[in-house]
C-alpha cells in the first residue's frame, strides 16, 4: 500500500457504515464478489471491478484463490488483510472467514497497526469512495485528509481514471465545516473556501494529488499556491526541518512536477525582475514616482522590520501599494499617461486567476505573488492517457 508523506491530526471514530452488507446494483448482473473491509461487507460485480481497476483486472483471479463451491453465493471472496507494518490490502479468503465477524479486540488491533494517524474509520470511508466512483455514485468529502486517502487508495487499486472522472462532482459536494450554518445560498461559497484552505495548507500535496488524478483545473490552481508560497515553504523547511515542508523528499518521486514548478518559478522571477528593472529606470526620470517608492518602502519597513531581508518573490505588498498609488496619481494628473503601461505590467504581476477558487485567505495575501499559470500542453502527464 502506498504511504502518504504529510502529517495529519489524530482521527478517531466508529465505522460510518451499517454492519449490514452494502449492495451495489448493476442492472442485468448479479453481484458475484464479496469484499469485507474492516468489518464492512460489500456486494459488488467482477465486471465493474475489472472495467475500472487495472488492479482487479490483474489480480481478481489470484493464483492462491480457491474455486468457490458449486452453489456458493459469490464467485469471489476477498477481505482486507493487515500487515505487521500497518499497511493493508485485499486478499482472497475462505467463505468461513468471511462469515466470522471481527470482534472489538480485532478492531483495536487494526487501529493500533495503522500508521500516520490513520484509522479504520478513514480507510473504510476511502475504500467506499472508490467503489462509489466505479458505480458512478455521489461522493462526499469532508476533509483534505479524506480526499488524500481516497486518492491514495485509488492509486493503489489502479483506479485513478474513474476517480478523476468523478472529481468535478466531488468538488461540488464538499461538506462544509460542521460549525457552518447551512444557509443554502452560502453553501457553494463555503465549499470554494474549503478548497482554497486545502490549497493554502497543503499546496505541495494538492499539486501531487491533482497530478495523480490528471485533473488540469485542480493542478493549475495547486501550482498557483505552490509557486506563490515557494519562498515561505523554503524558509519553513529550513527552520524546523519539518516533514510537512520537506519539499525535496515530497517532490523527488515526481520529476515532471519539479520541472513544471521550476518552469513557472522561472517565469515569475523573470516577470518580477522585468517589472523591478522598468521601475528603477522610469522612476529615475520621475521624482514624484521616486518619492512614492521611497515612502512606500519606509512604511512597510516600519511595520515589518525584516522586510528588507525578504526575497524579490516576497515583495508583492510593495507592488500592491505602488499600483494603487500610481492609479491615483494618473487619475489626478500628477504623472503622465505613460505610466499606464507600467500599471498594466503590475496588474499581470499581481493577478490571481485560479479556476476553482475565487479568493485568497487574507493571511496569505500579504507578500507573495499568485500569477503562476499552466500553459496548455505543459502539464506533467501525457495528455492522451486514458489508463494510468
TrEMBL record:
Database matches in PROSITE patterns: BTB
Endpoints of the signal sequence: none
Domain BTB, chain residue ranges per copy: 31-143
Matches recorded under Gene3D superfamilies: Potassium Channel Kv1.1, Chain A
InterPro entries linked to this entry: BTB/POZ_dom, SKP1/BTB/POZ_sf
Protein name: BTB domain-containing protein
Organism expressing this protein natively: Monilinia laxa (Brown rot fungus)
Amino acid at each position: 500500500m502506498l504511504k502518504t508523506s504529510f502529517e495529519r491530526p489524530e482521527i478517531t471514530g466508529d465505522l460510518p457504515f451499517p454492519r449490514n452488507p452494502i449492495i451495489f446494483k448493476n442492472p442485468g448482473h448479479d453481484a458475484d464478489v464479496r469484499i469485507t473491509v474492516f468489518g464492512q461487507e460489500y456486494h459488488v460485480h467482477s465486471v465493474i471491478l475489472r472495467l475500472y481497476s487495472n488492479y482487479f483486472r490483474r489480480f481478481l483471479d489470484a493464483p492462491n484463490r480457491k474455486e468457490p463451491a458449486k452453489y456458493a453465493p459469490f464467485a469471489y471472496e476477498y477481505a482486507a488483510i493487515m500487515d505487521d507494518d500497518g499497511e493493508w490490502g485485499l486478499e482472497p479468503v475462505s467463505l468461513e472467514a468471511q462469515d466470522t465477524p471481527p470482534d472489538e479486540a480485532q478492531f483495536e488491533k487494526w487501529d493500533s497497526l495503522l500508521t500516520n494517524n490513520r484509522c479504520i474509520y478513514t480507510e473504510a470511508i476511502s475504500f467506499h469512495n472508490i467503489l462509489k466512483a466505479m458505480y458512478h455514485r455521489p461522493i462526499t468529502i469532508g476533509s483534505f485528509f479524506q480526499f488524500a486517502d481516497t486518492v491514495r487508495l485509488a492509486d493503489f487499486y489502479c483506479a485513478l481514471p474513474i476517480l478523476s472522472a468523478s472529481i468535478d462532482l466531488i468538488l461540488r459536494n464538499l461538506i462544509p465545516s460542521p460549525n457552518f450554518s447551512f444557509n443554502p445560498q452560502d453553501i457553494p461559497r463555503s465549499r470554494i473556501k474549503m478548497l482554497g484552505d486545502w490549497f493554502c495548507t497543503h499546496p505541495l500535496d494538492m499539486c501531487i494529488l491533482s497530478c495523480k488524478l490528471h485533473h488540469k483545473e485542480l493542478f493549475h490552481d495547486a501550482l498557483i499556491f505552490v509557486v506563490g508560497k515557494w519562498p515561505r515553504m523554503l524558509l519553513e523547511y529550513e527552520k524546523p526541518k519539518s516533514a510537512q515542508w520537506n519539499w525535496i523528499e515530497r517532490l523527488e518521486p515526481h520529476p515532471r512536477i519539479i520541472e513544471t514548478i521550476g518552469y513557472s518559478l522561472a517565469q515569475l522571477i523573470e516577470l518580477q525582475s522585468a517589472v523591478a528593472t522598468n521601475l528603477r529606470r522610469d522612476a529615475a526620470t520621475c521624482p514624484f514616482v521616486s518619492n512614492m517608492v521611497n515612502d512606500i518602502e519606509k512604511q512597510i519597513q516600519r511595520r515589518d522590520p525584516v522586510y528588507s531581508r525578504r526575497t524579490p518573490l516576497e515583495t508583492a505588498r510593495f507592488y500592491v501599494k505602488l499600483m494603487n498609488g500610481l492609479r491615483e496619481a494618473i487619475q489626478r494628473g500628477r504623472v503622465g499617461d505613460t505610466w499606464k503601461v507600467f500599471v498594466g505590467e503590475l496588474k499581470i504581476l499581481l493577478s490571481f486567476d485560479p479556476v476553482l477558487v475565487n479568493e485568497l485567505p487574507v493571511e496569505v495575501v500579504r507578500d507573495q505573488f499568485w500569477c503562476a499559470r499552466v500553459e496548455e500542453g505543459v502539464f506533467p502527464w501525457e495528455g492522451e492517457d486514458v489508463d494510468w
